[in-house]
Amino acid sequence: MQLPDADSPCLPEIADKLKLYPFFKNCLGAFDGTHITCSPPAEDRAHYLDRKSGLSSNVLAGCTFDLLFCYILSGWEGSASDGTVFEDGRKNDLTVPPGKFYLADVEFGACKVLLVPYRGVHYHLREWVTSKDKPATKEELFNLCHSGARNAIERIFSVAKKRFKMLHYCSDLPINTQAHTVPGPSQFH
């Protein structure tokens, strides 16, 4: 697994699509968090309680637009926000070359290395499909394009969870071992 480098040319997945190029020409991929069911020790359960009242570990992942994982950080408690996990990655081993960025959802907040959508404006692709409306403002158009490109991370999470059924079930292994059961990138090809 390797993060794209600063000298990478514009990705074909961006360059070949008029609705994405030149707006996202310096974009390297997308980031998001996903929750993996876990079984922490009784004394730590409150920290692993996620927003849906389940026990989970928050796993941060980044992928390129050709659906390859380029970064994974696992082991965070389910109560941790995606933005918090991302900032931990940035403090430790996640580097984004100057002038480059990744797409993320509004849960991450704005920063120099993440491009997030406008708040309070239609965003998710399914919202556009069900409304049958066309973007009426530049913010709606941006969010529609952003959602279409960022969908890569949602798609790869779906593929991984379908392929690796163990990601849906708790384990009796120690919580530190459970954090390392997230498959490595070579297993997703």
Characterise this structure:
There is one protein chain. This protein is of the alpha/beta class. It has one domain (12-116, 153-180). It has 6 helices and 5 strands. Strand 2 (56-63) and strand 3 form a beta hairpin. It starts with 11 loop residues before the first helix and ends in a 10-residue tail after the last helix. Residues 183-189 have low confidence and may be disordered.
Structural class by SSE content:
alpha/beta
Main sheet makeup: 5 strands, mixed
Strand percentage lies at 15-25%
- How many distinct helices? 6
Radius of gyration: 17 Å
What is the helix content?
A: 25-40%
Taken from the alpha-carbon principal axes, the silhouette is: globular
Query: Which residue ranges are poorly predicted, with pLDDT under 50 across at least 5 consecutive positions?
Result: 183-189
Mean pLDDT across every amino acid position:
83
State the domain count: 1
Topology pattern, helix = H, strand = E: HEHEEHEEHHH
Number of strands: 5
Distance between the termini: 11 Å
List the strand order in the largest sheet.
Answer: 3-2-1-4-5
List the defining traits of the structure above.
189 residues; alpha/beta; five-stranded mixed beta sheet; 17% strand; globular; disordered C terminus
In summary, what is this structure?
By secondary structure, the protein is of the alpha/beta class. It has helices at 12-15, 45-48, 82-92, 125-131, 138-163, 175-179; strands at 27-37, 56-63, 69-77, 101-103, 114-115.
